[in-house]
Design brief:
four-stranded antiparallel β-sheet, single chain, 11 helices, Adenine-n6-DNA-methyltransferase TaqI, Chain A, domain 2, elongated, about 375 residues, 3 domains, alpha+beta
């Protein structure tokens, strides 16, 4: 911040001039996105009303160094493209009309004010909309070019560091997950061991079919309605509500019968399964955790043709053959895989938090830069960090 502060103090002693979008920017070309323009392996990215890149195209209608503002759907969301791209007709494209104003500087200022644009300029209806007549009146500060360049340089560096961190952490998480799958598959491969008994799933577990959702339930948990009603979703998305009763209170494995077909979860709490969910309660000689790991491996290797297979039924799974080692061996395998899974899950929680923290840090410094540009005041906490 010190260099930027000094530049602003020296070059803008009386403040910074503000200009409206219509006075500083030219609007780019937008076209309807159709099957011809949206192809899988196109050379150029397509931007439209979505937050991320919409698709790929072999053609482009705008040069790089442009700002994309969603005008419908995710109206007000700001993107920037450094490369040539195709813009759909549900967004606006702008570029600076002057060599004395950097397009990238305009982008960073608009991105910093994205929430303000969404909250104040976007009309809230069935389809949120940002009208061009409102957007062109939005004002942007225009400091001297040297200040713009310094601000863009600082924010570019921070953006690059954040992207590098995200990429590194994602690679680490993918590596750990691949290691887990490798060791799981090796530990659960008993085909060459003739001493291991083979049993049908129905021989080692009771298979229950989910029923209709209870009539008496609450959407949110309280002291009375505390038992989850579980469907075929994943994680928290599987919980449809909470009941004051339950139908299952055993260690068990659930299998999604529709939608996320074959998705398995281990459960050790009282709950009520509903339709689209199969529940397996293992007998005394089978570990529920072992069964969970085994079936997760089994279904990960299955390919379902959803055009012909609409659901799994009890009949579909009851004859699945399971290699069942002694309970002590099952427990050893479970302990190893649980520990490995814990490490993966810990990374899965910790890595996104690390990325989120870095993004918040970046947003904070971006806010401070533009706040100082606007007011000449730097947050005291930020000043203390510099010292």
């Amino acid at each position: 911040m010190n260099k930027i502060e000094k530049l602003i103090y020296e070059l803008c002693p009386n403040g910074v001039e503000y200009k409206r979008i219509k006075d500083i920017a030219i609007f780019g070309t937008t076209n309807l996105v159709n099957k011809k323009s949206n192809i899988e392996n196109g050379k150029y990215p397509i931007y439209n009303s979505s937050i991320n890149i919409f698709g790929r195209s072999d053609n482009y209608n705008n040069p790089g160094d442009s700002i994309i503002i969603a005008s419908r759907g995710n109206a007000g969301f700001i993107n920037y493209s450094s490369e040539n791209f195709f813009a759909g007709n549900l967004c606006y494209v702008i570029r600076s009309k002057s060599n004395n104003l950097l397009t990238k500087f305009i982008y960073y200022y608009l991105k910093n004010n994205q929430d303000k644009i969404i909250n104040q300029l976007v009309s809230k209806g069935a389809i949120p909309a940002l009208n061009k007549s409102d957007f062109i009146l939005f004002e942007v500060p225009v400091p001297p070019l040297s200040i713009q360049k310094e601000i863009v340089s600082v924010l570019d560096s921070f953006t690059e560091l954040t992207e590098e961190l995200t990429e590194e952490l994602t690679e680490e998480l993918n590596l750990r997950s691949a290691q887990y799958v490798y060791y799981r598959d090796r530990l659960l491969d008993f085909e060459d061991n003739s001493r291991i008994k083979i049993k049908k799933l129905s021989e080692i577990s009771t298979i229950l079919v989910g029923r209709d959702k209870p009539n008496d339930y609450l959407e949110y948990k309280n002291e009375k309605y505390k038992f989850p009603i579980v469907s075929n979703g994943k994680g928290q998305k599987a919980i449809l509500g909470y009941s004051d009763t339950f139908s299952i209170n055993d260690e068990c494995v659930t299998i999604s019968a529709r939608g996320t077909i074959g998705y398995c979860e281990y459960r050790d709490y009282p709950f009520t399964p509903v339709v689209r969910l199969l529940t397996l309660i293992p007998n005394n000689n089978t570990s529920a955790k072992f069964l969970y790991h085994y079936l997760s491996k089994y279904f990960s290797e299955k390919t379902f043709d959803t055009s012909t297979i609409q659901q799994l039924t009890r009949i579909d799974i009851q004859d699945i053959k399971i290699y069942v080692p002694s309970l002590s061996i099952q427990n050893e395998i479970v302990n190893f895989l649980d520990n490995f899974e814990y490490v993966c899950n810990d990374l899965n929680i910790g890595l996104p938090k690390e990325v989120e923290l870095r993004n918040k840090q970046y947003q904070y410094y971006r806010d401070q830069i533009f706040n100082y540009l606007n007011t000449g005041v730097v947050d005291r906490a930020e000043r203390e960090r510099e010292w």
